[in-house]
Amino acid sequence: RSLNMDFENQDKEKDNSSAAGSFNGNSTNNSIQTIDSTQALFLPIGASVSLLVMFFFFDSVQVVFTICTAVLATIAFAFLLLPMCQYLTRPCSPQNKISFGCCGRFTAAELLSFSLSVMLVLIWVLTGHWLLMDALAMGLCVAMIAFVRLPSLKVSCLLLSGLLIYDVFWVFFSAYIFNSNVMVKVATQPADNPLDVLSRKLHLGPNVGRDVPRLSLPGKLVFPSSTGSHFSMLGIGDIVMPGLLLCFVLRYDNYKKQANSDSCSAPGPGNISGRMQKVSYFHCTLIGYFVGLLTATVASRIHRAAQPALLYLVPFTLLPLLTMAYLKGDLRRMWSEPFHSKSSSSRFLEV
Fold this sequence. Notes:
This protein is mainly alpha-helical.
């Protein structure tokens, strides 16, 4: 009887630990990639190499790159649609998984979101419409922000500063070396439609697959002008990288709020006004992002030339954040692994 009680207690402890792990998001953490200092330093170099490959060998790799981009956009947009599909299918079907052999097991909501995403990508391939491309680009942005984390303010500063130099160099100075604006050429160059390439390879005839348009790849958001004569562009990197910073400060705001409520400590140093303490880092950084994006748009209109958006977004987000963190006395804690500096529950780590 005592042995049975011991085994029952062990089973209960396992159930409790697994339930706690599910509540704390440990299963989600397994798929989340945290950027460290080394990756933050080498990411602009890797992006530069990829940009040069696309600049010099675009005709050779455009079909492969288009197919890979379409596959990634399909997966990302299915992830974006999944909560809506779960809400729609909950009253109609149980959340039992359907087996597809070696492909895995999927719920009805997952199958519905994937089907809608495939349909959207196919319509984009057939029409090349800019609105569908923007939808796929937004799916890529949401997926990247959901599965990538910045662990500290130091890594955030290294990453954004390196990408700022990368953006400025390839927009302003690449023409002096390569006789062409590398960033603008790669961003605006359309790719051959895979259906057109397939019809030519299979010799399906002159009218089969030849009327499909060339595709502008969903690595950016495009906005038509009021006259429709030209488009303004914003790269998804200019959304994702500041978005990762916003995600970091949102996590820190939640962490600090929970830590203060548990310790019942004072909200901050005595020389800081209560109104300043009420301003969250998230809202400060979000306002800075809006002002930086507005400044980049105005600068583009004034100079009538492409502008590196990170030249405006990085200072307008990082400088107010660093200033507020210094005034609140949180700069040292935010700078290096703020979520591991204290023994706290892991429920503070995710927002």
